[in-house]
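**Tokenised fold:**
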Amino acid sequence: MTTQPSRTLETFPNPKPDADYTVRMTIPEFTCLCPKTGQPDFATLELEFVPDRACVELKSLKLYAWSFRERGAFHEAITNEIADDLATAMNPRFLRLTAKFNVRGGIYTTVVATRRQPGWTPAPPVTLP
């Protein structure tokens, strides 16, 4: 059983690469450190992506998120770093990472980072009666 954090994001082949579909994951126990005070920051990460050839493997994502626990970083920097790492690992058609940080100094911070493949556009929304 792995008991150590890891910076490695593993992937597996997309089981339906010819279709656009959305994968949504919620990571409710993300922690890092405030770069100014060293106090812990807590966040819920919401990951949404439209895979192309690969999907992220859940255990590696959990260990990857754990790797930030002792790192100091601003909310904006850490959210964009995670989005970049996920985009590099999977090369999804579209990726959105929403980081909802708990209150710090009386302020809640939400950072949204998106990545998309050049030229990819989503299908138009479907409105049902």
